[in-house]
Amino acid sequence: MPHDAESDDSLYDQGIRYFNDCEFFEAHEVWEELWTEYRGPLRKFYQGLIQAAVALHHFGNGNIRGAKKVYLSSRGYLETFQPACRGIDLEAFLGQMDQCFAAVMAATDEFPKLEIEPDLIPEIHLDPALAAAGET
């Protein structure tokens, strides 16, 4: 498939739909397809979204150590694009991720037994006013 802005937008939007449907593995797959071909200034942003989806996937499957590791790397990538990027209020999104992963971050056991709290799972809601934010 040729790489162009229209296909980037389509993959971006499709990943968001999967993410909001809690289909985190599928969101990761779609965004990874975008990230693999993309060479612009938002490459690390897309990598952060991919890792956010992977972290939630791991958390939902009980892989708490994996979830923590990927969550932290996701934050590292996304923080640099704050306050917003491609229509996402990253400050709000990262705040939601922080709430969702609070028990993961507080766990001291080597293999903690935690379950993801459905009410704390973040969603991505695009704000057209923020659409160009972060695009340099």
Explained architecture:
With 136 residues, this protein is mostly helical. The chain has one domain: TTHA0068-like (Hyaluronidase domain-like, Orthogonal Bundle), CATH 1.10.3450. The chain is 59% helix and 3% strand. The chain contains 6 helices and 2 strands. The protein has helices at residues 5-20, 24-37, 43-60, 64-79, 90-100, 102-106; strands spanning 84-85, 88-89. The chain has a two-stranded antiparallel sheet. A hairpin with a 2-residue loop joins strand 1 (84-85) and strand 2 (88-89). Helix 4 packs antiparallel against helix 5 (90-100).
The helix-strand sequence is HHHHEEHH
Share in β-strands: under 5%
Q: How many domains is the backbone divided into? A: 1
Q: Number of helix segments?
A: 6
Q: In the CATH hierarchy, what is the class?
A: Mainly Alpha
What is the rounded distance between the termini?
25 Å
Class based on secondary structure composition and strand pairing: mainly alpha
Low-confidence stretches: none
Compute the number of strand runs: 2
Major sheet details:
2 strands, antiparallel
Spatial strand sequence of the major β-sheet: 1-2
Mean pLDDT score = 92
Quick one: overall form?
A: globular
Q: Write down the oligomeric state.
A: single chain
Radius of gyration: 15 Å
Protein name: DUF309 domain-containing protein
